[in-house]
Design a protein that fits this description.
- This is Putative lyase.
- InterPro entries: Fosfomycin_Res_Enzymes (IPR051332), Glyas_Bleomycin-R_OHBP_Dase (IPR029068), Glyas_Fos-R_dOase_dom (IPR004360), VOC_core (IPR037523), YwkD-like_dom (IPR037478).
- One of its GO terms (molecular function) is lyase activity.
- Pfam families: Glyoxalase (PF00903).
- It is built from two helices and eight strands, in the order E-H-E-E-E-E-H-E-E-E.
- It has 128 residues and is of the alpha/beta class.
- It has two domains: 62 residues, 2,3-Dihydroxybiphenyl 1,2-Dioxygenase, domain 1; 53 residues, 2,3-Dihydroxybiphenyl 1,2-Dioxygenase, domain 1, CATH 3.10.180.10.
Length: 128
């Protein structure tokens, strides 16, 4: 089997409009397509990151919370590579998104930080 690349990442949110604003306005992802699925009372928003990667943002009525703290089993977080982490954090903070203090990965020596999306899901910036 040959896997070519990750095709997409799916995120289920509790407040569609709030999460749509966060991922498009705060993080700058580009809308590919927005679909309302009446039979499921659900939105699906396809978002692009530099035309290479895609995030699917879903809304479903009454979806249960996923605990982030303490850390639960399963996928832990999504990480975005940035060129200048200090600049990226300043841009987030200017948009009202608080990030943890910048740390250094003890294995790679690279800088990184975490911040929450509107549902408190952990997102990481990792400096190139």
């Amino acid at each position: 089997m040959k896997l070519n690349k990750i095709h997409h990442i799916a995120i289920i949110c509790s407040d569609y409009e709030k999460s749509k604003h966060f991922y498009t306005d705060s993080l700058g992802l580009t809308v590919i397509k927005e679909t309302y699925r009446k039979e499921r009372d659900s939105y699906k928003l396809d978002l692009a990151i530099n035309d290479d990667y895609q995030i699917e943002l879903f809304s479903f009525p009454n979806s249960p919370e996923r605990p982030s703290y303490p850390e639960a089993r399963g996928l832990r977080h999504i990480a975005f590579e940035v060129t200048d982490i200090e600049e990226a954090v300043r841009e987030l903070e200017a948009k009202g998104v608080a990030a943890e203090p910048i740390r250094v990965d003890e294995i790679t020596g690279k800088k990184f930080t975490f911040f929450p999306d509107p549902d408190e899901l952990p997102i990481e910036f990792y400096e190139k």
